Amino acid sequence: MSLAIASNRRRRKILLGAVIVLLHLMVLDWFKGQLGKPREAAGRQEAPLEAQLLRIPKPPAPAPAPAQPQSLPPQPVLAPPPLPALPPEPVEVAQAEPDMDAGSGDGPRTAVPDAAPGAQPGGQASGQASGQGSAAIAAAGVQSPQSATPAQQAAEPAAKSAPEVRRYKVDLPPAADILMDVARTDANGTKWSGDALLSWTLAPGSYKIRFEAGITIVFAHVNLLTLTSEGAVGEEGFMPERMTEKRRGRSLTATHFQRKDGKLTFSASQASYPLVWGTQDKASVPLQLAAIARGDPQQLSGNIDIFVGEDRDASVFSFVVLGQEQIDTAMGKIATWHLTRPPKPGSYNSRLDLWLAPDYGWYPVQTRNLEASGAVTTQTVNKIVVKKSGS
Residue 102's closest CA among 312, 245, 198, 253? Predict the structure, then answer.
């Protein structure tokens, strides 16, 4: 075993010596190469170098930096002086009673219905004269269009285009008082009951209409809506000159039918329309339908279009005849013609139904308003008192 180890060591020494000798030979060869290079460089003659001076133009002077503007302190913005406020022009209510507690105005209406056929859904009855049912929505204050400042008048939009409506032969219904029972069911199922009165008088060349509707809360009667309409009578039938609307908890509004100027304007908005043949208001439209039926029942065909001014805007009410029906009333069964005004997108969302009674001078003996919310208000006659003209 010792002989093998000694043999391996000997081999390693021989191999190591060979490597050392090889490295020495490589070093010597490298030195020979380096020693030969200086001799060759010394024997060479270097070519003379020529220098040439070039004139380098001066670079253009840099442009001066723009002067920084001096920052100024912010100037206060002066608000224009306020215009002096003008007092609103009072609006008188035709035949208005001092204790009226109905409401008026525009906005979401959820109360005892549009009292007059053609009216929009009424404001929700409020309990204890203010709080029960849906809350009343406050409306804009009453201001006559004539009291607007010049700046406001200049800002008013141009009158909207006049709609085209049919012309009808009319025969005005005799003056009367129609007393009605009111039944309402809110969208949530709450039921209300009350009463309404549609009263009108006729005089040579003029008329006056009054409509009132209210509900009974416990043993108290709460008046919710009062409409008045007055104007002239002629070949167009009822020709309103001024309508007022007063809802409980809201300001009174007035609609003006300016026949001399041919305009329809509103105290609650800046809207303006040209008057067209047969233009009505919410109080007069059911009686105008009766006048059309009395003029010629054959006119109750196709669409019966009536341009109606409301409290702050106007639109065409399009009625269609659904057929003849008998309705139950406190006066017994009454034969009627059933008319309906379906919802009209962009104008009104409620459906309005009227029942005209040929045996009772074509008077409107029942109305029903179905609101978009699902609330339903029905007014059904319980008594008719025919009056003498002018009474």
Answer: 245
Compute the mean pLDDT over every residue in the chain, rounded to the nearest whole number: 76
Residue 4: inside a domain, yes or no?
Answer: no
CA 144 to chain centre: 23
Assess contact for 224 and 247: CB atoms under 8 A: yes
Q: How far apart are the first and last CA of the chain?
A: 154
Domain assignment of residue 233, yes or no: yes
- Kindly state the tokens that stand for 151: 């700046």
Q: How many residues does the chain have?
A: 391
| Euclidean distance between CA atoms 75 and 320, whole angstroms | 66
Report residue 137 as tokens. 């929505």
Contact by Cβ (8 Å): 123, 388:
no
- Per the structure, the complete domain to which residue 136 belongs is given by 127-145+168-386
* pLDDT of 348 strictly over 70: yes
Give the DSSP H/E element, type plus range, for residue 31: helix 2-43
User: Mean pLDDT lowest for which of 58-72, 121-135, 164-178, 315-329?
Assistant: 121-135
Instruction: Please give the backbone phi and psi of residue 13, each rounded to the nearest 5 degrees, phi first.
Output: -65, -40
Which residue's structure tokens are 């007014």? Answer: 379
Under 8 Å between Cβ of 105 and 93: no
